[in-house]
Specification:
single chain, alpha+beta, two-stranded antiparallel sheet, globular
């Protein structure tokens, strides 16, 4: 009986400790999965047009047909860009690489996907949330 308690306790601790990690690791391939970070995006493309909203990186989606072809209705404002930077270490919610300070970001009312809409000089620009899975 004591061995059963020891095994259950060990398994419980393992599960608790592994659930504290924000990124998951695929044990077979030793590959980390999780939402892309600002740093990862900018290392891959230093000219990326991105901003951060609630910890999620949103990327300009003007070249993605399924995003552009949706009929969307602009909803409530969810963010105003407060800082423009290309330094990933200086990024926080409201920071953007290309959008000017003061740009308003709106949620969409209908349509599919994690899409938000930036309004720049009266023009709608769609951004797609970069989420893993």
């Amino acid at each position: 009986m004591r061995k059963v308690h020891l095994i259950v306790g060990t398994l419980t601790m393992t599960l608790l400790l592994s659930s504290c990690n924000t990124k998951e690791t695929n044990q077979l391939n030793n590959i980390e999965t999780g939402n892309p970070t600002v740093e990862e995006i900018l290392v891959e493309n230093e000219n990326a047009d991105i901003f951060l909203l609630n910890g999620i990186v949103y990327s300009n989606a003007e070249q993605i047909d399924w995003v552009v072809n949706q009929e969307l209705t602009v909803g409530q404002e969810v963010l105003e860009i407060t800082k423009q930077t290309s330094d990933s270490h200086d990024f926080s919610n409201g920071s953007a690489t290309k959008l000017p300070v003061g740009t308003k970001i709106y949620e969409k009312i209908d349509g599919n996907g994690d899409i938000v809409i930036a309004i720049v000089e009266g023009k709608e620009i769609r951004y797609l949330g970069l989420r893993e899975g």
